[in-house]
Write a structure and sequence with these properties.
Layout (H helix, E strand, L loop, with lengths): L1 H11 L1 E6 L9 H8 L2 H4 L2 E6 L7 H6 L5 E4 L3 H6 L4 E8 L4 E6 L14 E4 L1 H5 L1 H8 L9 E4 L5 H4 L5 E5 L3 H7 L4 E4 L10 E7 H6 L1 H20 L1 H11 L7 H15 L11 H13 L9 H4 L10 H8 L4 E5 L6 E3 L5 E3 H13 L3 E5 L3 H9 L5 E4 L4 H4 L2 E3 L4 E3 L1 E6 L15 E5 L2 H10 L4 E5 L2 H9 L5 E5 H11 L4 E6 L4 E8 L3 H13 L2 H12 L10 H106 L5 H29 L6 E4 H18 L2 E7 L3 E4 L1 H22 L5 E10 L2 E8 L29 H12 L3 E11 L2 E13 L3
Parallel strand pairs: 1-2, 1-3, 6-7, 6-8, 11-14, 11-15, 19-20, 19-21, 25-27
Antiparallel strand pairs: 3-10, 4-10, 5-8, 5-9, 12-13, 15-23, 16-23, 17-23, 18-21, 18-22, 24-26, 27-28, 28-30, 29-30
Helix pairs in contact: 2-11, 2-12, 11-12, 12-13, 17-23, 25-26, 27-28, 28-29
Length: 854
């Protein structure tokens, strides 16, 4: 009996097949999930997912009915043009994952470098309109390209057997990254060719004979894709363990899933969306390139818009359905009763349009709150609900239609609050939102910084705003405007509009695919003008008929008062003008005398400024001289100690009469070598500090290394470690002045580390690299940073945080003068938080940006 029951259960499922277009990987995760999670069984289908083989032509399999469904790329349009009896149900990828790749070290950095190069593609890849259009857009002659048969081995690119290879963005870049190989990507969508890929398609006869089966398979597959993209790690594990004849590593499958999810929702598209105008554009490209054999009607290629608006099965559903129960949460949508106790509002008007298009009738059932609305679906009291977002919390229970309308969202505040044009300014302010899971999810997604306080309904939220318990209430403009008009007209007002409009969807029971498709087709058939007309109808606030005429008298009194003040003021001005004229004549005489001495005073001030600049320059020179003497002292200590020790040893051995000639000669050689080193040190310092105002060509890595060799000893004494990333870059400029800037910044870090830091953890990080046509020098330390209250002043002359005996405050000032005025660059500073060796640090970061050529 047990075996018999299993057999009967199996027989109750309709057998269908799906032919894949490539080997098993995350590219087909939605179908594996739908099968393993029982989504296909839920709609009475037993699906045979057939593996790919190079000898299988997928469109032929579906056209000849050897397979019920197939997965195809954008070349499916060519198959349709070749009279294949096929039709597309959806496109899972809104932009094709197909790309071209070259290695970074081959010199192929643009498509124009493809000339006379070898390109490895499959037959389909070379005919893909996205690749051909991308190459053609750069005026490349295809006769100058050598196409190779694809081996599907990335090592052919690595080993230079081909110069360019076609691949999927979701797979091959991962393999190259694992090998540590740099590469260039040529992506059609970056050149304006964002083509569909991975169509789910079937035979036209399958729709005519088994339309409900097609609808069920399509919806169950999309459900599988939604789950796969929401649970990428789980889907990857399933493929790794059960569908993995290629032995793809688990982390590679996860990488593929994340990349493909971006393409599935590219440009915020609905999952599986096919736009007729986009398909037409793809086919037009095929035509222009001479690839399409025959013209086709796009309506014949896309299932949703095929034949009439509704299919035979959908028409039977409409004829056999008395009414559709719609449960609503009135706090979200503006609904109210008129004198005849009938519903009015946006939702009602839109459902009237659906009724007009489909002949479906709707019963509106109001629920007290969102919880009751959701419960009504579970108890089958209602067939659909209206929702504000595709919330994951109800996604497993319901199917979502396309959005049917967008409603502006506004903020209601106290009457005295000024207009809010930046929603980010509401951070840390309590904002009321009705208890609607989908509405709250929508706000958290687009405005995560809002401090949301849930309220039972709009009236409760606005009362709290009026009592200062909330700063504002967020809701649709229709709901808030009606509530303010009726209950808070003199207390509250609309003070701002959110950037994102609220999209509204219908959520349908999982077991009612016919209703889902009827609603989607009805929504598509309603044009944007009709939708906007509904919104506009309910946005305006209907003010009360009674009018306070006393306001007119108050306004008139105000204007009379203002007019009297203006007339009196004009009379005073006439008198004052006469007095002013006399004073102006008198002041004019004084100004003439003042102008005579002005030139002399200006000359004196200029001379004083020159004297200040001379003194400042002298101070800089004295500071540089002191710096030089300090560095010389550091460099000379050990050599002088060697000379002193050696000479003392000679004297002691001479007095003890044990001095040997061999020791004497060796000691004298040591003294001589050390003296030569001291002489060379003096020469190095002389050359280093000698001013050079001529523009010369120099290598930044070379002069930095020389600079550090000279000043390094005092940093070592303080246990300061340098972590460097220096590129070898040639530039034209003032080398000696750039050296002085680097020294000043390093000294600033050294002083900060000596004062503020643990002696065992003193680091200076130096990064020097090229960006565009500029040299970038980035120096930062871990000394704790600079007080934010004074960080804007550190480039001022004579400003210093040190004791006056330790610094003059002109080093960083002169550094800014050198960089900005002499080298036409810029120098900035900020505090930076960073991690190094798994520890967190804070420090000041200097950024110097100078042009590579003056």
């Amino acid at each position: 009996m047990f075996l018999l029951s299993i057999n009967l259960c199996a027989k109750s499922l309709e057998k269908v097949s799906l032919q894949l277009s490539w080997f098993n990987q995350f590219q087909f995760a939605g179908y594996y999930i739908a099968k393993e999670k029982g989504f296909y069984k839920d709609v009475g289908l037993d699906v045979d997912i057939r593996n790919f083989d190079f000898n299988i032509n997928v469109p032929n399999e579906v056209d000849t009915k050897n397979a019920t469904f197939g997965v195809g790329r954008e070349t499916l349009l060519l198959e349709k043009s070749n009279n294949k009896n096929i039709i597309a149900l959806y496109a899972i990828f809104q932009a094709s994952p197909l790309i071209l790749l070259s290695l970074d070290n081959t010199g192929i950095n643009s498509i124009r470098d493809f000339n006379n190069r070898k390109i490895m593609t499959t037959i389909d890849d070379s005919s893909e309109v996205s690749l051909k259009a991308m190459i053609s857009s750069q005026n490349i002659d295809f006769k100058r390209l050598e196409f190779l048969k694809h081996t599907h081995d990335i090592m052919d690119l690595v080993n230079k057997k081909t110069d360019v290879i076609s691949a999927y963005i979701s797979k091959t870049p991962y393999d190259l990254q694992k090998m540590g190989i740099s590469y260039n990507v040529f992506y059609p969508k970056d050149y304006g060719f964002d083509m569909y890929s991975d169509f789910l398609f079937t035979n036209v006869d399958e729709i005519k004979n088994n339309e409900q089966r097609v609808i069920d398979f399509k919806n169950a597959s999309l459900r599988g894709w939604e789950y796969a993209f929401s649970h990428i790690h789980e889907a990857a594990n399933l493929i790794y363990e059960k569908y993995n004849e290629q032995n793809i590593p688990l982390d590679a499958l996860i990488y593929e899933g994340k990349e493909l999810k971006k393409l599935a929702y590219y440009m915020n598209s609905d999952l599986g969306e096919i736009k007729k105008e986009k398909v037409q554009r793809i086919f037009d490209l095929y035509n222009v390139m001479g690839l399409a054999k025959n013209p086709i009607l796009i309506d014949d290629f896309i299932y949703d818009d095929n034949y009439t608006l509704f299919t035979k099965g959908e028409k039977n559903y409409i004829n056999n359905t008395t009414a559709i129960n719609v449960c609503i949460n009135p706090s979200l949508i503006s609904l109210k009763h008129n004198s005849n106790k009938e519903y009015t509002g946006i939702l009602k008007d839109f459902l009237d349009l659906v009724t007009k298009n489909s002949n479906l009738k709707f019963n509106l059932i109001t629920k007290k709150n969102w919880e009751e609305t959701i419960k009504s679906i579970s108890t089958n009291e209602c067939d659909i609900i209206s929702t504000a977002s595709k919330s994951l919390k109800i996604k497993n229970k319901l199917n979502f239609t396309k959005r049917y309308i967008d409603i502006p969202l506004v903020l209601a505040t106290k009457d005295k609050v000024s207009f809010i044009d930046n929603i980010a300014s509401l951070k840390n302010k309590k904002i009321g939102v009705v208890k609607d899971i989908t509405f709250i999810d929508f706000l958290k997604k687009h405005y995560p910084y809002l401090d949301i306080v849930e309220v039972n309904n709009i009236n409760e939220g606005l009362k709290k705003v009026s009592k200062n318990e909330l700063f504002a209430q967020v809701d649709t403009i229709t709901a808030i405007s009606n509530e303010i008009q009726e209950n808070f007209l003199t207390k509250l007002k609309i003070s701002g509009k959110l950037k994102e409009n609220l999209p509204l969807y219908f959520a349908v029971r999982k077991d009612d695919n016919f209703l889902l498709n009827i609603l989607n087709k009805s929504i598509n058939s309603i044009d944007d003008f009709a939708k906007q007309k509904i919104v506009n109808k309910w946005i305006s606030i209907e003010f009360k008929n009674n009018f306070d005429y006393s306001l007119i008298w108050k306004i008139l009194l105000f204007f009379v008062t203002i007019l009297s003040i203006l007339l009196y003021r004009q009379r005073l001005l006439n008198k004052v003008n006469i007095v002013l004229k006399d004073k102006v004549d008198e002041k004019t005489k004084e100004l003439k005398k003042l102008n005579e001495s002005l030139e002399k005073r200006v000359e004196e001030e200029v001379q004083n400024n020159r004297e200040k600049d001379r003194l400042l320059s002298q101070q800089v020179k004295m500071a540089a001289m002191g710096e030089m003497l300090e560095n010389i002292a550091h460099q000379w200590r050990q050599p002088l100690s060697i000379i002193s020790t050696t000479s003392s040893g000679i004297v002691m051995q001479k007095k003890a009469e044990i001095l040997k000639d061999e020791f004497l000669i060796k000691s004298m050689d040591t003294i001589n070598d050390t003296a030569q080193y001291l002489s060379k040190t003096i020469e190095d310092f002389k050359n280093f500090y000698e001013p050079n105002k001529n523009i010369v060509k120099f290598n930044i890595k070379t002069i930095y290394t020389k600079t550090l060799d000279i000043i390094d000893s005092k940093y070592k004494n303080l246990n300061i470690k340098f972590i460097e990333n220096i590129e070898s870059i040639d530039l034209l400029g003032l080398d000696s002045e750039l050296i002085q800037v680097i020294i000043n910044i390093l000294n600033n870090s050294k002083d900060a580390l000596e004062t503020n830091n643990n002696p065992d953890e003193r680091f200076i990080f130096v990064d020097i690299y090229k960006k565009d046509n500029f040299l970038i020098i980035r120096i930062n330390d871990n000394a704790g940073g600079i007080d934010e209250s004074i960080i804007d002043r550190i480039f001022e002359p004579y400003f210093t945080t040190k004791h006056k005996s330790q610094g003059t405050g002109i080093g960083l000032y002169m550094s800014q003068e050198i960089v900005s005025k002499h080298m036409y660059g810029e120098i900035t500073i900020k505090n930076r938080y960073f991690n190094y060796n798994n520890k967190s640090y804070t420090g000041a970061q200097f950024n110097v940006k100078v042009p590579l050529k003056l």
